[in-house]
Write a structure and sequence with these properties.
It is a single chain. The chain has one domain. The protein is globular and about 60 Å long. It is mostly helical. Helices cover 72% and strands 0% of the residues. The longest helix is centred in the last third of the chain and has 32 residues, at 223-254. The chain starts with a helix and ends in a 12-residue tail after the last helix.
Protein backbone atom coordinates (compact mmCIF):
# COMPACT_ATOMS: atom_id res chain seq x y z
CA UNK A 1 0.00 0.00 0.00
CA UNK A 2 1.32 3.43 -1.01
CA UNK A 3 0.65 5.93 1.77
CA UNK A 4 0.93 8.89 -0.62
CA UNK A 5 -1.96 7.66 -2.76
CA UNK A 6 -4.03 6.87 0.33
CA UNK A 7 -3.40 10.37 1.65
CA UNK A 8 -4.45 11.78 -1.71
CA UNK A 9 -7.92 10.27 -1.23
CA UNK A 10 -8.14 11.93 2.19
CA UNK A 11 -6.94 15.23 0.73
CA UNK A 12 -9.61 15.09 -1.96
CA UNK A 13 -12.30 14.70 0.69
CA UNK A 14 -10.81 17.63 2.61
CA UNK A 15 -10.96 19.87 -0.46
CA UNK A 16 -14.60 18.89 -1.01
CA UNK A 17 -15.46 19.82 2.59
CA UNK A 18 -13.47 23.04 2.50
CA UNK A 19 -15.33 24.28 -0.53
CA UNK A 20 -18.88 23.46 0.56
CA UNK A 21 -20.73 24.41 3.74
CA UNK A 22 -23.49 21.95 2.79
CA UNK A 23 -20.97 19.14 3.29
CA UNK A 24 -19.51 20.51 6.54
CA UNK A 25 -22.75 21.20 8.44
CA UNK A 26 -24.08 17.59 8.33
CA UNK A 27 -20.87 16.40 10.04
CA UNK A 28 -22.19 17.75 13.34
CA UNK A 29 -25.72 19.06 12.77
CA UNK A 30 -27.68 15.78 12.69
CA UNK A 31 -25.77 14.30 15.59
CA UNK A 32 -26.35 17.46 17.60
CA UNK A 33 -30.07 17.39 16.83
CA UNK A 34 -30.27 13.75 17.94
CA UNK A 35 -28.53 14.55 21.22
CA UNK A 36 -30.83 17.50 21.96
CA UNK A 37 -33.98 15.53 21.12
CA UNK A 38 -33.05 12.43 23.11
CA UNK A 39 -31.57 14.53 25.89
CA UNK A 40 -34.91 16.20 26.58
CA UNK A 41 -36.71 12.86 26.27
CA UNK A 42 -34.48 11.42 28.99
CA UNK A 43 -35.00 14.49 31.17
CA UNK A 44 -38.75 14.04 30.84
CA UNK A 45 -38.53 10.34 31.70
CA UNK A 46 -36.47 11.21 34.78
CA UNK A 47 -39.13 13.68 35.87
CA UNK A 48 -41.98 11.13 35.71
CA UNK A 49 -40.12 8.16 37.19
CA UNK A 50 -38.09 7.70 40.34
CA UNK A 51 -35.10 5.54 41.20
CA UNK A 52 -33.55 5.27 37.76
CA UNK A 53 -31.47 7.72 35.72
CA UNK A 54 -32.29 7.46 32.02
CA UNK A 55 -29.53 9.83 30.92
CA UNK A 56 -26.61 7.33 30.83
CA UNK A 57 -28.84 4.38 29.86
CA UNK A 58 -30.78 5.99 27.03
CA UNK A 59 -28.87 9.09 25.94
CA UNK A 60 -25.55 7.23 26.22
CA UNK A 61 -26.88 4.43 24.01
CA UNK A 62 -28.13 6.93 21.42
CA UNK A 63 -24.72 8.64 21.32
CA UNK A 64 -22.85 5.37 20.87
CA UNK A 65 -25.16 4.13 18.11
CA UNK A 66 -25.08 7.52 16.40
CA UNK A 67 -21.30 7.35 16.45
CA UNK A 68 -21.40 3.94 14.72
CA UNK A 69 -23.73 5.37 12.07
CA UNK A 70 -21.50 8.42 11.54
CA UNK A 71 -18.50 6.15 10.96
CA UNK A 72 -20.45 4.18 8.35
CA UNK A 73 -21.70 7.31 6.61
CA UNK A 74 -18.17 8.73 6.59
CA UNK A 75 -17.03 5.80 4.43
CA UNK A 76 -20.05 5.70 2.13
CA UNK A 77 -20.19 9.48 1.75
CA UNK A 78 -16.64 9.55 0.39
CA UNK A 79 -17.42 6.72 -2.03
CA UNK A 80 -20.70 8.30 -3.16
CA UNK A 81 -18.95 11.62 -3.78
CA UNK A 82 -16.93 9.80 -6.44
CA UNK A 83 -20.08 8.14 -7.78
CA UNK A 84 -22.06 11.38 -7.97
CA UNK A 85 -19.22 13.22 -9.72
CA UNK A 86 -18.62 10.29 -12.13
CA UNK A 87 -15.04 10.29 -10.89
CA UNK A 88 -14.75 6.69 -9.71
CA UNK A 89 -13.43 5.30 -13.00
CA UNK A 90 -10.95 8.17 -13.30
CA UNK A 91 -9.43 7.28 -9.92
CA UNK A 92 -8.81 3.69 -10.96
CA UNK A 93 -7.31 4.74 -14.26
CA UNK A 94 -4.33 5.70 -12.06
CA UNK A 95 -2.05 3.23 -10.20
CA UNK A 96 -4.41 3.51 -7.19
CA UNK A 97 -5.23 0.10 -5.71
CA UNK A 98 -8.45 -0.96 -4.00
CA UNK A 99 -6.66 -1.21 -0.64
CA UNK A 100 -5.31 2.32 -0.96
CA UNK A 101 -8.73 3.65 -1.92
CA UNK A 102 -10.47 1.95 1.00
CA UNK A 103 -7.71 3.10 3.33
CA UNK A 104 -8.32 6.70 2.25
CA UNK A 105 -12.06 6.35 2.83
CA UNK A 106 -11.46 4.92 6.32
CA UNK A 107 -9.09 7.75 7.25
CA UNK A 108 -11.62 10.28 5.97
CA UNK A 109 -14.30 8.60 8.05
CA UNK A 110 -12.12 8.81 11.17
CA UNK A 111 -11.78 12.56 10.70
CA UNK A 112 -15.46 13.14 9.92
CA UNK A 113 -16.83 10.96 12.73
CA UNK A 114 -14.40 12.52 15.22
CA UNK A 115 -15.90 15.93 14.52
CA UNK A 116 -19.42 14.63 15.06
CA UNK A 117 -18.40 12.74 18.21
CA UNK A 118 -16.74 15.82 19.71
CA UNK A 119 -19.87 17.92 19.15
CA UNK A 120 -22.17 15.24 20.58
CA UNK A 121 -19.97 14.74 23.65
CA UNK A 122 -19.82 18.48 24.27
CA UNK A 123 -23.61 18.76 24.06
CA UNK A 124 -24.50 15.83 26.29
CA UNK A 125 -21.87 16.77 28.87
CA UNK A 126 -22.59 20.49 29.08
CA UNK A 127 -26.39 20.44 28.68
CA UNK A 128 -27.52 17.08 30.05
CA UNK A 129 -24.71 16.15 32.44
CA UNK A 130 -23.88 12.82 30.82
CA UNK A 131 -20.53 11.43 31.93
CA UNK A 132 -18.88 8.36 30.49
CA UNK A 133 -16.55 8.08 33.48
CA UNK A 134 -18.81 5.37 34.90
CA UNK A 135 -17.67 3.01 32.13
CA UNK A 136 -13.98 3.54 32.87
CA UNK A 137 -11.50 1.88 30.55
CA UNK A 138 -14.24 -0.30 29.08
CA UNK A 139 -15.24 2.72 27.03
CA UNK A 140 -12.22 2.03 24.79
CA UNK A 141 -13.38 -1.43 23.58
CA UNK A 142 -16.94 -0.08 23.34
CA UNK A 143 -15.90 2.60 20.88
CA UNK A 144 -13.49 0.25 19.11
CA UNK A 145 -16.23 -2.30 18.39
CA UNK A 146 -18.63 0.36 17.13
CA UNK A 147 -15.93 1.99 15.02
CA UNK A 148 -14.89 -1.27 13.37
CA UNK A 149 -18.49 -2.30 12.76
CA UNK A 150 -19.26 1.12 11.25
CA UNK A 151 -16.28 0.75 8.93
CA UNK A 152 -17.45 -2.72 7.90
CA UNK A 153 -20.98 -1.46 7.20
CA UNK A 154 -19.67 1.46 5.17
CA UNK A 155 -17.38 -0.66 2.99
CA UNK A 156 -20.07 -3.32 2.47
CA UNK A 157 -22.62 -0.64 1.53
CA UNK A 158 -20.15 0.87 -0.96
CA UNK A 159 -19.62 -2.59 -2.46
CA UNK A 160 -23.39 -3.03 -2.79
CA UNK A 161 -23.68 0.26 -4.69
CA UNK A 162 -20.74 -0.76 -6.85
CA UNK A 163 -22.51 -4.00 -7.75
CA UNK A 164 -26.08 -2.71 -8.19
CA UNK A 165 -25.35 0.70 -9.64
CA UNK A 166 -25.56 4.33 -8.48
CA UNK A 167 -29.35 4.22 -8.06
CA UNK A 168 -28.97 1.68 -5.24
CA UNK A 169 -27.50 4.31 -2.89
CA UNK A 170 -30.92 4.53 -1.24
CA UNK A 171 -30.29 1.09 0.25
CA UNK A 172 -27.37 2.57 2.17
CA UNK A 173 -29.00 5.22 4.37
CA UNK A 174 -31.49 2.99 6.27
CA UNK A 175 -28.91 0.34 7.25
CA UNK A 176 -28.27 1.59 10.82
CA UNK A 177 -32.01 1.94 11.46
CA UNK A 178 -32.66 -1.57 10.14
CA UNK A 179 -29.98 -3.07 12.39
CA UNK A 180 -30.80 -1.14 15.57
CA UNK A 181 -33.70 -3.44 16.68
CA UNK A 182 -31.33 -6.43 16.54
CA UNK A 183 -28.42 -4.61 18.23
CA UNK A 184 -30.44 -3.99 21.40
CA UNK A 185 -29.61 -0.30 21.49
CA UNK A 186 -32.50 0.61 23.80
CA UNK A 187 -33.40 -2.67 25.50
CA UNK A 188 -31.82 -5.95 26.67
CA UNK A 189 -31.51 -8.77 24.18
CA UNK A 190 -33.63 -10.93 26.49
CA UNK A 191 -36.69 -8.97 25.35
CA UNK A 192 -36.25 -10.14 21.75
CA UNK A 193 -37.88 -13.24 20.29
CA UNK A 194 -35.49 -16.16 19.74
CA UNK A 195 -35.00 -15.59 16.00
CA UNK A 196 -34.07 -11.93 16.54
CA UNK A 197 -31.80 -12.87 19.45
CA UNK A 198 -29.95 -15.31 17.19
CA UNK A 199 -29.22 -12.47 14.75
CA UNK A 200 -28.22 -10.17 17.61
CA UNK A 201 -25.56 -12.61 18.79
CA UNK A 202 -23.65 -12.20 15.51
CA UNK A 203 -23.81 -8.38 15.63
CA UNK A 204 -20.84 -6.82 17.47
CA UNK A 205 -22.78 -3.75 18.73
CA UNK A 206 -25.13 -6.01 20.70
CA UNK A 207 -22.23 -6.89 23.01
CA UNK A 208 -21.44 -3.21 23.52
CA UNK A 209 -24.94 -2.27 24.61
CA UNK A 210 -25.34 -5.38 26.78
CA UNK A 211 -22.05 -4.49 28.48
CA UNK A 212 -23.10 -0.87 28.91
CA UNK A 213 -26.34 -1.87 30.62
CA UNK A 214 -24.51 -4.37 32.83
CA UNK A 215 -22.27 -1.59 34.15
CA UNK A 216 -25.21 0.73 34.81
CA UNK A 217 -26.97 -2.00 36.80
CA UNK A 218 -23.86 -2.74 38.82
CA UNK A 219 -22.99 -6.05 37.20
CA UNK A 220 -19.58 -7.18 35.98
CA UNK A 221 -18.88 -7.21 32.25
CA UNK A 222 -17.46 -10.48 30.99
CA UNK A 223 -14.14 -9.87 29.27
CA UNK A 224 -14.81 -12.77 26.94
CA UNK A 225 -18.00 -11.09 25.74
CA UNK A 226 -16.17 -7.91 24.73
CA UNK A 227 -13.33 -9.90 23.17
CA UNK A 228 -15.88 -11.78 21.09
CA UNK A 229 -17.46 -8.49 20.03
CA UNK A 230 -14.08 -7.10 18.93
CA UNK A 231 -13.24 -10.33 17.08
CA UNK A 232 -16.57 -10.30 15.27
CA UNK A 233 -16.05 -6.67 14.26
CA UNK A 234 -12.60 -7.43 12.84
CA UNK A 235 -14.03 -10.38 10.88
CA UNK A 236 -16.76 -8.15 9.46
CA UNK A 237 -14.18 -5.57 8.34
CA UNK A 238 -12.18 -8.26 6.53
CA UNK A 239 -15.33 -9.70 4.94
CA UNK A 240 -16.48 -6.24 3.84
CA UNK A 241 -13.09 -5.48 2.25
CA UNK A 242 -13.19 -8.81 0.46
CA UNK A 243 -16.74 -8.14 -0.73
CA UNK A 244 -15.85 -4.68 -2.07
CA UNK A 245 -12.76 -6.03 -3.84
CA UNK A 246 -14.78 -8.82 -5.43
CA UNK A 247 -17.49 -6.39 -6.59
CA UNK A 248 -14.84 -4.09 -8.04
CA UNK A 249 -13.18 -6.89 -9.98
CA UNK A 250 -16.53 -8.12 -11.23
CA UNK A 251 -17.46 -4.60 -12.35
CA UNK A 252 -14.17 -4.32 -14.24
CA UNK A 253 -14.48 -7.78 -15.80
CA UNK A 254 -18.08 -7.31 -16.96
CA UNK A 255 -17.74 -3.66 -17.98
CA UNK A 256 -20.27 -2.49 -15.38
CA UNK A 257 -17.70 -0.03 -14.09
CA UNK A 258 -18.54 2.11 -17.14
CA UNK A 259 -21.65 3.20 -15.22
CA UNK A 260 -19.32 5.36 -13.13
CA UNK A 261 -17.71 7.11 -16.07
CA UNK A 262 -18.49 10.69 -17.10
CA UNK A 263 -18.83 9.48 -20.69
CA UNK A 264 -22.06 7.64 -19.75
CA UNK A 265 -23.85 10.86 -18.86
CA UNK A 266 -26.46 11.63 -21.51
Amino acid sequence: MNLTRTTAIVLRQFYLLRGSASRVVPLFAWGGIDMVLWGFITKYLNSVTAGFNFVPALLGAVLLWDFCGRVMYGVTQGFLEDVWSRNFLNLFATPLSVDEYLGGLVLSSIANSSIGLAVMLALVTAVFGLSFAVYGLLLIPFFLVLFLFGIALGIAAAGMVLRLGPASEWFVWPLPALLSPFAGVFYPLSTLPPWMRAIAHVLPPAYVFEGMRAILFGRAVAGGMLAWGVSLAVVYVLLACGFFTRMYRQAVRTGLIARYSAETVS
